[in-house]
Amino acid sequence: MSRPQIVWLRRDLRLADQPAFQAAGSAGPVIPVYVLDDERPGSRQMGGASRWWLHRSLAAMDAELRRHDARLILRKGDVVDQLVRLMDETGAACVHAVRHYEPWWIKAEADLAKRVSLRLYDGNYLVPPGRLKTGGGTAFKIFTPFYKALLNDGGPRSPVAEGNLAFADAWPESDWLDDWKLLPSSPDWAGGLRQAWQCGEAAAQAQLADFHDRAKDYEEARNLPSVEGSSRLSPHLHFGEISPAQAWHALEGMRGEGIESFRRELVWRDYAQNLVWQRPDYPERPYRPEFEGFPWRDPKGDDRAAADLLAWKAGQTGYPIVDAGMRQLWQTGWMHNRVRMIAASFLIKHLLIDWREGERWFWDTLVDADYGNNGANWQWVAGSGADANMFVRIMAPLSQSSKFEAADYIRRWVPELASLGDAVIHDPESRPSGYPPRLIGHREARERALAAWQVVKSS
Ligand SMILES: Cc1cc2nc3c(=O)[nH]c(=O)nc-3n(C[C@H](O)[C@H](O)[C@H](O)COP(=O)(O)OP(=O)(O)OC[C@H]3O[C@@H](n4cnc5c(N)ncnc54)[C@H](O)[C@@H]3O)c2cc1C
Q: Is the CB of 369 under 6 A from ligand 1?
């Protein structure tokens, strides 16, 4: 009789195309384990919206495992200590896990490997970070050559089906998920999240199937906030309820701009992780050193900046498209990509507040909050990243709003403006009662931002 095998789960909460399950299953009866470790990530403990998603995803995983007469073992505490203890309790031979690249996970994997037999597998990215190299043998810093190299490499491997898994028949003790208190209670702010999302592997597959029918229109529709044009797979991909290879290959045989463009976005996810792989603190400090001395307005020392930051978070800036996005984020844990760019640009360039303040707010409020994607995109907007939009290209929120036909989106998320017509809603001259004046005019903000940039440039 072969010894049990532990599958250590993190952001890979699926059974299909999950190499740790496959490898463990062929070695012996499997015991799937999730350890909640709030210490190792330090200041990168999961935010509120992520914790909400995690609860639902773990519950879905456990329900699915019970259909196989198995279960998900939950433990809390230092992940290495907990896994070592579980090995002792169960007599397991080995821990199998999908490799993760956040710095705290790299450290945990190294610590665990010193104490038990640990096997790591690639599976959460199209191509393992660091594998693709430039002609000079270095890692890629710029997106387009990275993308081309990935295509030239043959694209991602084909996904692997779930297969026949044999699970253990004796189970160690498990915590109760409810005891972890991942869901908010007083106040319960998650009503909008419950309405917006179904979590877990089956829900991710259903979302992918739904997108399949819309994929051919993706290229244009993805930019229109009023339309359901993108896949909305991001939290499922973040928690690994679906693998990017599954998303990529689901469109096999389909042709057209929409398909190419969707796959290209999946490659942005790989690219972001590739940056974190090269510089693990990428989301914590500007990649371009000249930004270290940027004269940001500091909400800690300047009351006006503090009030502006609060207004931005609450969707009360007086710019309808920004406010719609920030309220969509607060209510559903997600924001349309085009609006994320506009809202982020507004914080950084109109309000002249350090991108890291915005990154932190998104970290807490997004259900897809992702160390690589969030940091890379905030730095892209700020202009401080490896491959970034230039700082001096300042997005005009009002013309972006009309160009991308955001009227219905604004009506939905800013009800004070719901009665306004398409021609005026992007920039209402007279403010309906309850809707705030603009925090700052566009021209004034632009001039202030460019002046701040001059300080950096001349230093
Ligand atoms: C300031 C800012 C912060 C962001 N923070 C995050 C974050 O924390 N987590 C996150 O997953 N995405 C983040 N994004 C990227 C993007 O907005 C979301 O991935 C996308 O909106 C998710 O919706 P979707 O699944 O419908 O995307 P689709 O358009 O359907 O794209 C498919 C998948 O490709 C990936 N993807 C798409 N665009 C990007 C991108 N620009 N960078 C990296 N991957 C991408 C995502 O995994 C996405 O699910 C951020 C963008 C900005 C501008």
A: yes
pLDDT for res 253 = 87
- pLDDT attached to residue 101: 97
Check pocket membership of 373 for ligand 1, CB cut-off 6 A: yes
Q: What's the CATH number where 379 sits?
A: 1.10.579.10
Q: Name the closest-CA residue to atom 49, ligand 1.
A: 234
Last residue of a domain, one of 212, 247, 279: 279
pLDDT number for residue 164: 80
Q: Which residue's CA is minimally distant from atom 24 of ligand 1?
A: 232
**Residues 6 or more apart from 457 whose CB is under 8 A from it?**
290
Ligand 1 center to 329 CA (angstroms): 13
Whether 26 and 104 map to the same domain: the answer is yes
Evaluate whether residue 142 is within a structural domain.
Answer: yes
Q: Are residues 99 and 141 in the same domain?
A: no
Rounded to whole angstroms, the Cα distance separating 101 from 274 reads 9
Q: Which pLDDT score is estimated for 266?
A: 98
Residues 232 and 349 in one domain: no
Average pLDDT, the chain: 96
Residue 451, classified by CB atoms within 10 Å of its CB into exposed (0-12), middle (13-18) or buried (19+), is exposed
pLDDT digits (tens, 9 = 90+) for 203-252: 999 999 999 989 999 999 999 999 999 999 999 999 999 999 999 999 98
- The total number of structural domains in the chain stands at 3
Place of tokens 């997106």: 143
Q: Which one-letter amino acid corresponds to residue 122? A: D
